[in-house]
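User: Now give one protein:

AI:
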Amino acid sequence: MRVAALYDVHGNLPALDAVLGEVGDVDAIVLGGDMVLGPFPAATLARLRELEGAHWIRGNCERGMVEQDDVDPEFAWHLRWCAEQLGADETVVADGNQVQAVQDLTGGGAKVVLDFVAEQGAEQDGFAMTAPGGSYFVIGYGGQVEIPTLDIISTERNIIGNIVGTYNELAELMALAQSGKVTLHTRTYPLDAAADAVADLDAGRVRGRAILVP
């Protein structure tokens, strides 16, 4: 089996095209992180998405774009620029003032907030960023939403759990998976290797879901 491993492309599209031209016929391509943070992020991402059957691994630069708590402030501007190049209209650094920043950008709060993290304080921030009459969608999991009921009633904000689609759509997806028409990416661990699973998830080594098997 021949595998091409591409690491640290850093948005260098000309270099990526040159390397892909030398790869030739391989059985799999592994994209080992730090792919788009560089001079041509959008074009590089579009080129990588054209690769069929590529296996993606999140690198520290991708992590930094969504988890900015420990990012060097001098480097934060590059992360924000890259996010803007990838389509973000506005960017906000999670520096402790993110709720106020979002409220200022949206004139008092966003009508819709999609929380893909929902833990470690993101769940409280997400609701606080939601405008009166708006909707806070909880997509991630792991935290706890603790909100005085009066705050919900007085502002008429909605809290909506979301499993990325309706229940019927999820059932249809399971039927497609069972018939072999879609591929589910999972990695199983014995129960006594739970710590290894957590470490692999944290390091971005798991593609899809990590499953503990008793």
Observations:
- Residues 73-85 form the longest helix (13 residues).
- Strands lie at 3-6, 28-31, 54-56, 110-115, 130-138, 158-161, 186-190, 209-213.
